[in-house]
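Record pair follows.
FIRST:
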Amino acid sequence: MALGLPSVLPNPQPGIGELIRDGRPTFSFEFFPPKTPAGEKLLWQAIRELEPLRPSFVSITYGAGGSTRDTTVAVTERIATETTLLPMAHLTAVNHSVAELRHVIGRLASVGVRNVLAVRGDPPGDPGGEWIAHPEGVRYAEDLVRLVRDSGHFSVGVAAFPYKHPRSPDVASDTAYFVRKCRAGAEFAVTQMFFDADDYLRLRDRVAAAGCDTPILAGVMPVTQMSTIERSVQLSGAPFPRALAQRFAQVADDPEAVRRLGVEQAGEMCAKLLAEGVPGIHFITLNRSTATREVWQRLRADARV
């Protein structure tokens, strides 16, 4: 086997690509690695509160510039060995040599983790700054996909952008880049967060028109405070929908009303996506469980889950 990794993973876990193509929509949660003891407590509280919902899988993000590499791997390992959850580790190319990337992949393989989301990642410090490849690393996400796939029996996902990646010159180019990642070996994709179901549907249509049938999961984050709207471009790469912003503006002085509207809007959008045949919904939790559980309960009450 390539790169000297184990030919057989210990207690190999299901591949997310296989789960997604199984027919029923998947439901999953995204966490980020903690930076403080208090943050670690919050993370594991959220994990334990969401675990009974039996999500299809959970993912653990990777800090800008690889700043949380060891924590990401450690959290992924702990989820794989101490919970009933199926973990997917994010992996970025920023500031990493191929040797370092192989080491991370090997650590994941050693505990049976076979699901990886391969993304190029943002430069540390300034997400909009110049992207400079590591002199001994890889330049594009499609190269990272190939590296992971060549390293063993992994199910690899990639990022998708309902609007377009901020660095893509236009939507057509962004679509072409996405298709290249899929043809490099990606089995599925997860979108950046968005707040209008039509943005997802347009993405799906243009990818299909390009002859690519890779399943694309919808990344959803309920708006629970007005600052999310203010940071929309940074978070999602697209302006917050004007009509929806007006709805939030009407209750901006009432934090609880903002939160209720956010849960309601996310539930409505998820219901529309499911009706349109989305293969899965990936909830971005920010390491908190309450809003995600409320959206989940709304969907379950409507027999959507």
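SECOND:
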Amino acid sequence: MSSVKVAVRVRPFNSREISRESKCIIDMSGSTTAITNPKVPPGTSDSIKRFNFDYSYWSHNQPSDREFSTQSMVYTDIGEEMLQHSFDGYNVCIFAYGQTGAGKSYTMMGKQESEGQEGIIPMLCKDLFRRIKETASSELQYAVEVSYMEIYCERVRDLLNPKNKGNLKVREHPALGPYVEDLSKLAVTSYEDIHDLIDEGNKARTVAATNMNETSSRSHAVFTIFFTQRRHDKMTDLDSEKVSKISLVDLAGSERADSTGAKGTRLKEGANINKSLTTLGKVISALAEIVSIQIHICRHINSSEQ
């Protein structure tokens, strides 16, 4: 099993694209995504580029399309597996990355008030408490805490305590790693508690209209679930504790200033967004390089043993 999985999703045209009579240049078959370059003559070697991902979700047409990937299908493939890993005691992370207006917030958060359109975050939270209810006993107890923050123009804001307008500091713990100082961490006992907190946090999140997206997220939002499992062994009368962290991230969209019509504050926001996404890309590339080196070393050791 790979420790990192990548899924790509194509959304329907929005009203702006429909009015321009845009043409879809993306095609999906299984886990393969093909992109047609309209500037290259058809039939040439460079006219179509194909990429393989762990999942390719075709959500371009209407739900009546037999190949249409729904919100629940995306969660079943991605969210359920991550939730199982958290029950196994691992830290997990799901983040949505892409251009502004690509549908990241819809995939991660969805429309909570519309049945069947909930995103990964509310569906995972609902599934979490369903499993807790089914498995909790006198020997196994659970505790759930959540935090919700946004990173806006390189400043960290607490979305569950929006009255705190200060810039929260990011610290490094010698054992637990990076953390945000003074970030609210609230205990929850049901999905309804989480639903209310998510709704409260979303209202405090920074959004603005651009030419590319009427409700563009101008910040990176990180919703974190701290999940603790406490087990009591009757044989030894000892208690054990297993803690995992589930990070669910809705990144702000990358953008070009000429496409979004960004000026003034919007332009400054876009510059900070692109800067942080570029840094994230460098981190991912460095991690991928480390993994490839480790694989090469393992293969070399195996060949030496033979």
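COMMENT: The mean pLDDT is 83.
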